[in-house]
Amino acid sequence: MFKQMSINLLFEKLKIIGRFLRFWNGAKSIDSVDSPLVYQLCLDIQSAHDAKTQFKKIEDKRAQLLMDNTLINVQSLGSQSKVNRSEIRSIRQIALSSVSPRNKCELLYGLVKTTKAKTVLELGTSLAISTAYVAAVDRVDYIKSVEDSSKIHSYNENLAHNSKINMIQSDFQSYIENELNNKAKYDCIVLDGRHDEIATISYVNQLINLLNPNGIIIVDDIYWSNGLMNAWKTLRNDYRYNLKIDLFYYGVLSNQASIKEEIDLKLWPFSKRWQLGLFR
Predict the structure, then answer these.
(1) Is the dihedral of CA 186, 170, 142, 48 positive or negative?
(2) What is the pTM of this model?
(3) Which of 11, 29, 200, 219 is 20 to 30 A off residue 211, Cα-Cα?
């Protein structure tokens, strides 16, 4: 059984490498970008890699999680990890398989920074590493982060977090409906959970109604599976967005008043070609 799991994991990684190589071949670099808005986005993303000092505390927390062998019952509604399919996992295993690597977290920081967002909604807290990177953006006033696993949420509540972070335990659909009823609005929404084609499309189609003007939706792991690739293709074809950027690790959707012509492109997100961060 262990041998079969290892073969399956290797096969999944090979598929991701194939998707990445196809993306690499078609992605534009900053030097070939025409739009001033997208050019500035590139600069802000790349500058995130220079913010080493403020990321140190977050990475120290990641290191602590990677040494924590506490077992919890995940009980999550999201898609199963491709590394560990058991619902009983250690914090260390979750940190290894379900938490974004540093390069990807820095990319998210850069994305949120360039939006000038003050209010952020994140669906999918996990162990709150990505959440902490978002909260590190100076302009962000607060981030509401929703986790559907009650056990992970309880574990997070016992840890020290940035005061900007408001952690909420709820399934995504119930929380979205509640926010719609309350007419809540956000500058930036990050969908980082329930990696399923139909669910992703459904969530995003509702989340657009929670955006402030010029707000953005960031969809995580758009190449994680064939289902998510199909979901991203569907979302890219939505007429309600005039800005669609494929960063391999994230898909960005927005309706920007300043854009007169639609922007739809694949963009290499890092300043150096060897910066990958392919696997969780």
Answers:
(1) negative
(2) 0.88
(3) 29
Number of Cβ atoms within 10 Å of the Cβ of 141: 12
Place of tokens 């952020």: 120
Q: Where are the alpha helices (DSSP H) in the chain?
A: 2-26, 36-47, 52-65, 91-97, 102-115, 129-135, 150-157, 172-181, 197-207, 226-236
Closest CA to 115 of 94, 151, 140, 148: 140
pLDDT digits (tens, 9 = 90+) for 79-138: 544 444 567 889 999 999 889 999 899 889 989 988 899 999 999 999 999 999 999 999
Determine contact, residues 109/134, Cβ cutoff 8 Å: yes
Beta carbons of 164 and 141 less than 8 angstroms apart: yes
- Residue 214: helix, strand or coil by DSSP? strand
Q: Which of 212, 194, 214 has the alpha carbon at shortest distance from 202?
A: 194
Q: Which CATH class is domain 2-67+100-266?
A: alpha beta
